[in-house]
Write a structure and sequence with these properties.
By secondary structure, the protein is mainly alpha-helical. The protein has helices spanning about 5-25, 35-40, 40-60, 65-80, 85, 95-110, 120-135, 140-165, 170-180, 195-200, 205-215, 230-245, 245-270, 275, 280-295, 300-315, 320-335, 340-365, 370-400, 400-430, 435-455, 470-485, 500-505, 525-530, 550-560, 565-570; strands at about 90-95, 470, 490-495, 520-525, 545-550, 580-585, 585-590. Helix 9 runs antiparallel to helix 20. The longest helix has 30 residues, at about 400-430. It is globular.
Length: about 600
Amino acid sequence: MSRTTLNLTFAIGFLAAAAGILIARANPATGYEPSVYLGTPTAVWVGFAIAMAIGVGTAIACRGHYQAIGIGLGSLVATSIVALPILRNYRFSGMGDALSHLGWTRDIVEGGMYPHDLLYPGVHSIGVVFHFLGGISIERALLFTILLLFIPFLIFVPLTVREIAGPGAAVGFAAVVSWMVLPINNIATHMGVHSNSNALFLAPVVIFALVAYLNRQATIERLPFGLSPFSVVLYLSAFALLLVHPQQMVNIVVLVGAIAGVQFLARRRYDDHPILEQPTTYAHTAVLGGFFTVWAASNERFRNAIVSLVDGVLADDVGTEQEVDQREASLLEIGGSIEELFVTMFLEAAIIGLIVGLFVLAMWLGWTNTTRATASHITYLGLALIPLGGIFLVYFVGTPTMAFRQVGFIYVILTIIAGVALAHLFGGLSGYITRPGANTVAALALGAFLVLGLMTVYASPIIYSPSQHITEQKFSGYESGFEHAAEERPHVGMGYDPYRYDHGINGLDREDVLSGATHSSGEIDPEQFEAGNYSGAYHDSDYYFTVTEFDVTRETQVYQGLHHSEEALEGIQYDPAADKVISNDEFDMYAVASDE
């Protein structure tokens, strides 16, 4: 392809991406959107699809600065998709931990607490900076924080692969796989104000510094006292990761420690090997482990988490199998299946993982033409997956949700290795067909994977989980509800405990903060509610019942009346024991009197 043609192609791609961004910005959300994908105008997706197609093709086929431009184009589209809640003027996005993080950020802004009062204040501190410097709301500041922490993932995955395999096809393939955002699984990692998930996107920065350090043997690249500049970057980036979330710092310590272990064994076994020429990571393991130990051991919340994990491991029945069986039965009742959900959420991740596993095995068996230097880095990362997988098993037995957070970090590693694996796979394919033919097959296959990956970055009804979009009306309804409510009357939701909204709106640095699993906040009894016994639907107590557009969408459209029906929701409007005290287009609140 001639230079003129390439320049014209890139111009079309960037214009298409810019058009998509501008159209999205010109069409803000006017109400609750169950899916950010369906709520976004079709023209936006057409523009993004054109730009992404050009980005994928050029990232794979081109080299040098044209490959870099292609990677930049694809990264722009991926970033724009992640930024859709910002572009389309969402008030906020996220209803679980995100609302608690919003509350802590509000506490810091209002002077109720200091950042260092939190175990991991990174996300909140960045949000505070955006709030004050940008003059924007705290909610919007946190949405910008999500975006800021996501961008390093797209930059440093290909940079890390370039350090591992040198410039070439592997860099382009790594960039394309990074656009799939595989660490997000929507089970325990989410694209939102969720510090554990946000930390995943900083991990490649630390890994890049680590790989760059291993590649530099020259004494000219030394600071005073013999310290490598990449060691400094490694320590600083790891400390930043610790401030965002310590669990991912644990994984980095395990990764660096695994590399140290491999180096130790290699020095005992081999007389000539690339690993022997690389600087050791013994000191880095000790320093990073010390960072984490000092930081975490001084925090009571961390100690409580460890106790909970140990209790879970020692418990006779964790309940994971029973929970899966219950969810499978529920899916069948609404016309879905576990198999369908797996394909939608995990097919591309499973295939990428399989390709990586087979490539690493083939490399260890000597069936690839990988250079010894590249093979040493792949060996480091491949063997590190063993202790990281062991941590996954411990989490799975103790706290299954944490296990899927661990899967998120594992897929950071797999994303990096995938760049090298796919370059070898399609490079080998070019020996049977032509190189342009192999590039075409690669672009089509990875394009399909990108669709699967990007359409599940955010929750939506396609994965039986409607968007956690929080509108102005919803915020306003909860604000009024908490402000004017009687102190002793509990707040009750439909399938969702509303205590998190109390966190987000009023902060957590106060005595009367609501918390889950208490009488003061909870969920309605679905059996009593469906039977029309509204007075007895919450522990035979007087209570405030809140129902939002999100609740109605989830229960009547996504779950198709599995737990709550439209008839029961209509019935409470006419029940003499229920008085509607607050109402707007997306929020209703009833004061329900008990029979006692």
